[in-house]
Backbone:
């Protein structure tokens, strides 16, 4: 057998294999897609649509000419990314304990390549789901600002995904048991969602809460998406981009590091 | 023949609990070697160290000449593993599972397809490779796991409780496949089991493990011979300890023990000793209600070396299942 260069940090074939595997699993488990799209869909249909009929001027911080559904849609796309990417990071650790990843970890492949491929797969599925939500929003009447804005939004999606996949990985490696995780997960993910300004603008909140929103990574993801898709950002886009880029590198890097430090069982 | 596995003082502790306690062993190329012991004897922990999943607390182990703690990747290249808990991807087909496995080991497409063909026909899995794993029976799923373990031509294949939870027929057929693969490919096979028959049927050599220690290592027949040539088991109407003690005085009796309502004798000679024993018991007023003469089994050998019955530990299936669930929950 040929000599395997197992020490290579990024080993293309295993990275691709792990990615492909994630994609196949995603396409094969139909229920997962439906259940992950249902909640964002409900938000758009039962919060966005009714509120879009009233004048948005009533909500402080929403620029004139933008109705509430336009404002909400990027927030819901951000929510989809938050939930899916965090879960994807967490499930890496579960798979390692109960699933197929256990077998992969005894292959002569650098762990970073394994985690990279697996995370890229998870990110791809998260972005596909986000795009489906976006398509639904457009069908409901949201107008996006154009192709360049759309392409820019994909950049923000990737950065948001990487940030929360890393976040999920860190959570799962630190929390250990699955029960503890199930109990704590909503306590962590929901505040991140509500504090991100996905539902209402930062300016409409009291100052104390606004400071908490500034330290929420999702705030910058949602704002970046909002800026690129409907042109209603609270911060300059370069700021959103820089903050997310740094966060994604730090969190994803730390997550991958912690994961590779764990013993396989 | 070379040693493919060698350990010295191999030890693993978990928070003060010694799971594997200074074990020394060596396994030759081409052997089928089994670790036999009850749940919690340290078999799986030993295998996990040999597979580079777990680092030893002290001592060392070499697989294919490489140190399991310091040359992990070299070890990983020459081994295959079938885990105790199934870890085949249930959402994928058998073929996809094998393909992904081969890709992780950098097999090129041509070699992979040829090998896949070979492995599938060896294990009679042809025709089932395009079915999603979750739609296959437990035995077939297990066979795919074994097939996956063989994909990369490993020098050593580790099987951790390969037939746990399978019915008797499936178990037997899997044994035959494992033996055939060992014979056809010359792969060294290391397995753990708490099934006596499995160790007896499959293994060239067996290590009897209990409480993290290896109590004996030998061929199954030699282990049995150590117990004695013949075992006579007597059921005595109103037996008590005094009869056991006086039976110890009979010439040729190496061991006499009350066990599970009967007196078990380890005795030189065979049937010809039976009348003598009947007379002996009669004279002392202990009528014998039944006599059973048999060659010792590996189970007797286990009892002999560990001082307890493997089945006492095995418990019923329900308890075993609870144990599995508890372990899963407790794991980090």
Residues:
């Amino acid at each position: 057998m040929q000599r395997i260069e197992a020490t290579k940090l990024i080993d293309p074939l295993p990275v691709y294999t792990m990615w492909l595997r994630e994609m196949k699993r995603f396409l094969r488990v139909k229920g997962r897609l439906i259940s992950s799209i249902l909640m964002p869909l409900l938000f758009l249909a039962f919060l966005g649509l009714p509120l879009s009929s009233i004048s948005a001027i009533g909500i402080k911080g929403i620029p004139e000419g933008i109705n509430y559904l336009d404002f909400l849609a990027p927030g819901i796309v951000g929510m989809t990314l938050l939930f899916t990417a965090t879960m994807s990071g967490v499930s890496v650790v579960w798979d390692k304990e109960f699933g197929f990843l256990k077998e992969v970890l005894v292959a002569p492949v650098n762990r970073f390549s394994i985690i990279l491929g697996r995370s890229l797969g998870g990110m791809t599925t998260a972005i596909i789901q986000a795009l489906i939500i976006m398509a639904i929003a457009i069908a409901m009447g949201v107008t996006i600002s154009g192709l360049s804005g759309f392409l820019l939004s994909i950049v923000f999606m990737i950065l948001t995904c990487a940030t929360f996949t890393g976040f999920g990985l860190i959570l799962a490696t630190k929390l250990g048991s699955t029960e503890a995780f199930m109990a704590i997960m909503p306590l962590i993910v929901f505040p991140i969602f509500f504090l991100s300004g996905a539902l209402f603008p930062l300016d409409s909140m009291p100052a104390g809460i606004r400071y908490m929103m500034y330290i929420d990574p999702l705030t910058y993801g949602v704002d970046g998406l909002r800026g690129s898709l409907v042109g209603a950002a609270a911060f300059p886009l370069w700021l959103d981009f820089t903050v997310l880029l740094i966060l994604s590198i730090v969190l994803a890097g730390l997550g991958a590091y912690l994961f590779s430090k764990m013993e396989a069982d | 023949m070379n040693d493919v596995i060698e350990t010295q003082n191999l030890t693993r502790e978990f928070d003060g609990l010694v799971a594997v306690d200074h074990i020394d062993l060596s396994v030759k190329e081409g052997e089928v070697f089994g670790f036999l012991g009850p749940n919690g004897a340290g078999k799986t922990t030993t295998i996990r160290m040999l597979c580079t999943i777990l680092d030893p607390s002290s001592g060392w182990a070499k697989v294919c000449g490489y140190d399991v703690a310091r040359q992990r990747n070299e070890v990983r290249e020459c081994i295959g593993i079938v885990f105790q808990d199934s870890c085949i991807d249930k959402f994928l087909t058998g073929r996809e599972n094998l393909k992904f496995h081969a890709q992780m080991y950098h097999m090129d497409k041509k070699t992979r397809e040829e090998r896949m063909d070979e492995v599938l026909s060896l294990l009679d899995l042809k025709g089932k490779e395009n079915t999603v794993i979750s739609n296959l029976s437990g035995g077939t799923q297990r066979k795919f796991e074994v097939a996956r373990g063989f994909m990369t031509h490993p020098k050593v294949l580790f099987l951790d409780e390969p037939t746990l939870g399978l019915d008797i027929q499936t178990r037997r057929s899997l044994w035959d496949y494992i033996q055939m693969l060992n014979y056809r490919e010359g792969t060294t096979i290391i397995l753990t089991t708490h099934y006596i028959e499995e160790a007896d049927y499959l293994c060239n050599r067996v290590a009897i493990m209990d409480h993290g220690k290896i109590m004996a290592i030998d061929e199954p027949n030699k282990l049995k011979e150590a117990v004695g040539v013949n075992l006579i088991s007597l059921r005595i109407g109103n037996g008590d300890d005094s009869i056991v003690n006086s039976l110890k005085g009979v010439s040729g009796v190496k061991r006499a023990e009350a066990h599970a309502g009967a007196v078990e004798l380890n005795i030189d000679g065979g049937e010809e000793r039976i009348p003598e024993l009947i007379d002996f018991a009669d004279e002392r007023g202990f009528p014998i209600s039944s006599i059973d003469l048999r060659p010792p089994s590996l189970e007797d050998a286990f009892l002999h070396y560990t001082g307890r019955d493997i089945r006492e530990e095995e418990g019923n299936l329900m308890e075993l299942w609870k144990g599995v669930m508890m372990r899963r929950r407790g794991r980090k």
